[in-house]
Every structure is written in structure tokens, then in C-alpha cells.
């Protein structure tokens, strides 16, 4: 009889312990979206999914919400500077210009870099189409260069580095992509429903010295 009472007591304590364990177990909260900016019916947000983080545009229409991917984030920490969206009109159509900057810093024994990456995108949100995606990087770099194989002698080299094209949106909805060696203007072609190159002036030839 004592053994039977003891068995019931053990079963009761086991059930109570398991219930307490279940009560303490809570589902992990769903990460909240980070809102970067809003304009008109568009909200730019950082969303977290099983596959990682993304920057997206949520475009609210009459019957649905479209999700347009702006950028997949390789880094968990995304801190854009001056993330903006503004509308513009060209050839009777309304588009949106998305722009932001990211600071880049590298600090090692052999290299120090301070840079800025600028992202420019043009969106036709009505047709869920990315019309242009442009990335440009400018940085100030200081590197230690070794003068021999044994790395006994070295000197520091400082230089400015530019990668990609500088972007400029004109008042009429055309845009310019410019580098040190070339400059091209693109205009929207309503028939083709895309931007096409309008002009690409050649770099001026160096003037000949007079003898």
C-alpha cells in the first residue's frame, strides 16, 4: 500500500513539474519591421525573415499591398544615412526616386579606409518595376606598402578612390551617370517603357602644345 501511495505521489509531482515547464515556455516574439521612411502610399521598411533581412517597399493599393525588394542585407546591422523617397513625373508617368548612403570604415594595421556608398534607384511602383539601380562608392584610403619581401621597410600611401558612376536626377525626369572619363544622359521612352541613353558626349581630346 505504501508503495502504491508513493507511486501516485511521484506521478503527481512529475505532472505538476511538466505543467510548470510548459507554462514557462513562450513563443519567441516576431521581430518588428523597422520603418525607414514613408511617402504617399509607400513605406520603406527593413523586414526580418528566416532567410535574412531585406529592405523592401510596401506599396498600398486599393485591394492589395505590393512588396518590392530594394536590397538584401548581408550585414545584420544596417544603418543608412538619409534614406529618402521622392516622387517625380516624366512623360506623363509618376515614378519614385529612392536614395540612401552607407558609411564604410576599415581599420587594420595595414589599411585605414573611410568611405561612403551611395545607392540610387528609380521605381515604377505601378508596374512593380525597377527602372534603374546604381551604386557609387567614394573613399579615402591609407595603406602601408612594404618595399621588400621580408617586410622590413615600408611607407604609407594615401589615395582617393571612386568606384561606379555618380548619379544626378534632372528636373524633367531624365538622369545623368557620370565618371571621370564620361558622362551619359538617359531619358524615359514611354513607348518602350524604359530609360534609354539620350546623349553620351566623348571626352575632350587633349589640346596640342604649340611649338
UniProtKB/TrEMBL annotation:
Q: Does the keyword Signal apply?
A: yes
Q: Which residues form the signal peptide?
A: 1-18
- Origin superkingdom: Bacteria
Q: Which UniProt keywords apply?
A: Signal
Q: Identify this protein by name.
A: DUF4968 domain-containing protein
Amino acid at each position: 500500500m505504501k508503495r502504491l501511495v508513493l507511486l501516485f505521489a511521484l506521478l503527481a509531482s512529475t505532472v505538476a513539474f511538466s505543467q510548470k515547464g510548459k507554462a514557462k515556455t513562450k513563443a519567441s516574439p516576431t521581430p518588428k519591421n523597422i520603418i525607414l521612411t514613408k511617402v504617399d502610399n509607400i513605406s520603406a521598411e527593413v523586414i526580418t525573415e528566416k532567410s535574412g533581412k531585406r529592405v523592401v517597399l510596401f506599396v498600398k493599393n486599393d485591394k492589395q499591398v505590393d512588396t518590392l525588394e530594394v536590397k538584401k542585407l548581408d550585414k545584420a546591422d544596417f544603418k543608412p544615412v538619409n534614406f529618402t523617397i521622392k516622387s517625380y513625373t516624366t512623360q506623363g508617368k509618376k515614378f519614385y526616386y529612392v536614395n540612401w548612403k552607407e558609411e564604410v570604415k576599415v581599420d587594420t594595421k595595414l589599411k585605414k579606409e573611410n568611405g561612403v556608398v551611395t545607392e540610387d534607384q528609380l521605381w515604377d511602383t505601378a508596374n512593380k518595376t525597377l527602372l534603374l539601380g546604381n551604386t557609387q562608392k567614394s573613399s579615402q584610403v591609407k595603406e602601408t606598402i612594404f618595399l621588400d619581401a621580408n617586410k622590413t621597410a615600408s611607407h604609407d600611401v594615401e589615395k582617393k578612390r571612386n568606384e561606379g558612376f555618380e548619379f544626378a536626377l534632372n528636373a524633367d525626369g531624365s538622369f545623368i551617370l557620370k565618371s571621370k572619363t564620361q558622362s551619359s544622359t538617359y531619358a524615359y521612352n514611354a513607348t518602350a517603357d524604359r530609360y534609354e541613353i539620350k546623349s553620351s558626349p566623348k571626352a575632350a581630346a587633349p589640346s596640342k602644345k604649340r611649338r
